[in-house]
Amino acid sequence: MLAGAPPPLQRLVGELQKLPGIGEKTALRLAFHILRAENGYASTLASAIAEAVQRVRLCSVCCSLTDADPCAFCKDPRRDDSLLCVVEGVADLMAVERTREYRGRYHVLHGALSPLEGIGPDQLRLKELIARLGDDASAEPPRHKAVQEVIVATNPDVEGEATALYLTRLLRPLGVRISRIAQGVPMGGDLEFADQATLGRALLSRREL
Ligand SMILES: [Zn+2]
To answer: Is the Cβ–Cβ distance between 95 and 192 less than 8 Å?
Structure first.
């Protein structure tokens, strides 16, 4: 399909094709669009990518993406320190936030347990999660446990349920209440794509684990 295309175009298509869900046909269409676009769109796109890669990093507290550490969610004094919502990804955090039903803090795991894909506990941001849950007498000044309840909002699929079970076992000894969002979200579904009302209800009618 790309036979005869100039090498720079072939390279652009090749790079676009590495993006998830983008096949050769779509990559070619995007490349033509970028080449045809006016008003310096191509360089604006290139610099947006470069800036995002350079400035966006993980929040050292909640592991969400941010350009300032700690992130706005962790810094906001109006949010409830006693509630901690654990999600698989940043898109899920955004979905929960869109419901406007939740005013606590967040923690992003960056995945779910999946032995088939080689994702074990070490690949998830669990150390950071545990660090937020216990008392820390060595901190200056000494920090007392603020989180009273961990709301496990992993996806309602096999990996998400396995992760919820693992978290329950891991966190139970820390003496924190653990709850799971209700099954308003369809089994096998993805939090990210649940409608706001459904996800809002699922949060409000969570059950203790
Ligand atoms: Zn944060």
So the answer is: yes
Distance CA 36, CA 26 (A): 15
Give the tens place of pLDDT for each residue, 113-169. Answer: 998 889 999 999 999 999 999 766 666 666 667 899 999 999 988 899 999 999 999
What's the order of all strands across the beta sheet hosting 177-180? 104-108, 80-87, 149-152, 177-180, 207-208
Please say whether the beta carbons of 1 and 28 come within 8 A.
Answer: yes
Q: Return the structure tokens found at 145.
A: 């446990």
Question: Residue 128: which of 74, 79, 195 has the closest Cα?
Answer: 74
Torsion sign over Cα 17, 95, 75, 207? negative
In this prediction, residue 134 carries a pLDDT of 75
Q: What is the pLDDT of residue 185?
A: 59
Considering the entire predicted model, what is its pTM?
A: 0.79
The CA 178 to ligand 1 mean position distance, Å, reads 20
Q: Ligand 1: distance of its center to the CA of 78 in Å?
A: 14
**Beta-carbon neighbours within 5 Å of ion ligand 1:** 59, 61-62, 70-71, 74
Q: In sequence order, which residues have a C-beta less than 8 Å from that of residue 92 and are 6 or more positions away?
A: 108, 153, 155, 191, 192
CA of 199 to the centre of ligand 1 (A): 22
Residues of the chain with pLDDT under 70: 1, 135-144, 183-189
162 Cα: distance to centroid of ligand 1 (angstroms): 25
| 91 CA → ligand 1 middle, Å | 14
